[in-house]
Here is the input.
Amino acid sequence: MIRRALACLFTLGLVACASQPKPSTPPKQTGQQPARPPLPVPAAKPAETAVEQRTDAAVLDLTPVPFEIARANFITDTAARFNLEPAWIEAILARAQWREDTIKLMSRPAERTIGWSEYRPRFITASRIAAGQKFLAAHRAELTRVQDRTGVPAEIIVAILGVETSYGGYTGKTPVVDALYTLAFRYPRTGDPARAQYEARRERFFRDELAQLLVLSREQDLDLAALTGSYAGAMGLGQFMPSSYRQFGVDGDGDGRIDLLTDLDDVFSSVAHYFVNKGGAYGWKRGGPVAVQATLAPGREPFEPLDWTPTWTLSELATRGYTPMAPVPQGETATPVTLAAANGPQYWLGFRNYYAITRYNNSKMYAMAVWQLSEAIAGRALPPA
Here is the structure.
């Protein structure tokens, strides 16, 4: 999720979006616990901005831990976990800076504040479609090889790069160490008790990503001092977080190194590998549908399941009033999607491949934008926004 702060709602294991914050000179760290600036309380949100709920998330101890202790524990734990020198970790952290722009941007991802009718035009434009078609034509041979091997269509891979970094045109200028250091120890809090567990998990997630970055730099010989990316620590053309880089990165050209910053063969293979594997049993299905528009019977309320796993049969969805507007292959299961379009609600059924896109960025609007951009790149007609 990535160039501007428009498509970024980050979840465990997914990808973050690059941004273009105004230049700032954050203060060097001090020995005291930095204050976590509160997030603004959001207004009522459209249904499509809801975040998928996890029923298996562990309950965390919310007792505050002083910054000095949390930092020292991080160094000790990371050194032991990845067999790194504590002194080396300390030297890296000593040069890290707090990023106030990261805090501000993390507090206002686009999915929280706008609906589909405003969101889609920011990503699906004539210029982005044309650039995607040009990019696809320029790299068709490499993309076709990946498509044949993995089943992930070339236009889907291109659309991801188009949404994330404008096909590599902007991959972010924030020092990745600074971004992750800030969010690892200063993740913003709303003060809302209902969000306390979520916010604590987010901070823990970014603390782990900081550790993953350190070991990744050793594995792939990355220059941490020169490494830049998004305000949330994602990097490269596909905006992989460090843990995803390590877990899903693929050496696409067989040169012995996984380079997701500049090597297109590696990038294409890694994006496809992510789609196929991140969703587990619901990873990308070769030749499967992504989404189909549906109608909702008059008087029926939209169904918004907390878990987006596409396990609902068409007959089960029919009992809730949903009828697909196009033929659906026999045996497919789906999750319902409601989008606030310009002329009223749009109802969709998202299949296994739609769910696979949400694993890249946990947002229904993001997944729909990527898919529709890929359709436009492939020359297929789109429904109105």
About this structure: The radius of gyration is 21 Å.
